[in-house]
Amino acid sequence: MLPLAAAVPGRRRSSESKPNGSTAVTTGAGAPKTLVDFAHALADISGKAILPYFRKPITVTNKAGVSAFDPVTAADRAAERAIRKAILARFPDHGIVGEEFAAVAGSSRYRWLIDPIDGTRAFIMGSPLWGTLLGLMDGSEPVLGLMDQPFTGERFWSDRRGARWRGPQRKARRITTRACARLGDAILTSTHPEMFRAGEEAARFDAVRARVRMTRYGGDCYGYCLLAAGYVDLVIETSLKPYDIMPLVPIIEAAGGIVTTWDGTPATDGGRIVAAGDRRVHQEALAILRGMR
Q1: If 196 and its partner were Cys, which of 44, 50, 84, 202 is the partner (CB 3.0–4.6 Å)?
Q2: Domains by residue range for the chain, with CATH
Q3: Rg for the chain (alpha carbons), in Å?
Q4: Distance between CA atoms of 157 and 144, rounded to whole angstroms?
Q5: 75: three-class secondary structure by DSSP
Q6: Buried (b) or exposed (e) across 111-149, using 16+ Cβ within 10 A?
Q7: For 28-38, what is each residue's pLDDT tens digit?
Q8: CA-closest candidate to residue 233, choices 251, 252, 246, 220
């Protein structure tokens, strides 16, 4: 197993987390030296697969049939194929869970989660508010996350020294969430209000929305990264899959934020998610989402 760069802040490194010999690799000239480097290499691979399709005429397939709209394109599938091929070539014992193809169980405790284009709706309308998500789990623990936006040249990621962003100039800087003491001062974002089921779920989201300073919609994974970078205070969503949120959890946590379900449990299995840059806002929003206020 390639080493991580350093320990994830706030996470206790257990005796189980030391790499075992079965996942050791020999790195040649120019090969990635750490798992973070390898994740960057995967992001480079996915960007090259995706960009030839962006803002070009493209066929959209609806995976949901006639009952709903769940789009997928050749760009989604090409990127995930390329990522999977690279992972299996280097770590054939690692598990893989991706949005577009069947899961690979793997024989080790390490599992990659892939969303090749998180925000396919934005992608097909030419909006740049989408990204490629890559995450690595060690058992049930998320240890690495990366979001790549190849069109804008932006990349957000976590390593064991913190969370980082780099832009088109490829100069990286550390990012942190910002302080926000009360819900009334918070900026809230969510991908779309229609994602909340009518009835109690929508009512609880609306109750939070009514108390914040400002709400903006659209963004998918990009909104979570803006939270990690200190521009947004709160993200609330529902019906997320593990590959939609797990790669973002290490980024937000390393930046000083918190991500849970509406019940306050770990968010790595997806579902109803609330992310905040400040724990005080998180607790205030969580109380409303739980129906306590």
Answers
A1: 202
A2: 15-175 (3.30.540.10), 183-289 (3.40.190.80)
A3: 19
A4: 8
A5: helix
A6: bbbbbbbbbbbbbbeebbbbbbbbbbbbeebbbbbbbbb
A7: 445 467 999 99
A8: 252
Give the phi and the psi of residue 234 in degrees, each rounded to 5: -150, 135
Q: At what angle do helices 74-90 and 35-50 cross, to 10 degrees?
A: 150
Query: Global pTM?
Result: 0.89
Q: What is the DSSP letter of 19?
A: P
From the list 132, 275, 163, the residue with the least C-alpha distance to 229 is: 163
Q: What is the pLDDT of residues 35-80, one digit of tens each?
A: 999 999 999 999 999 999 999 999 999 988 777 888 999 999 999 9
Query: Which tokens in the block code for residue 170?
Result: 């490829």
Tokens standing for residue 60: 């959209």
Structure tokens belonging to residue 19: 């790499």
Supply 206's token pair: 């609306």
- Cβ-Cβ contacts under 8 Å for 55 (sequence gap 6 or more): 126
Chain mean position to CA 75: 18
Q: What is residue 126's three-state secondary structure?
A: coil
The letter for the amino acid at 188 is: L
Residue whose tokens read 């480097």? 37
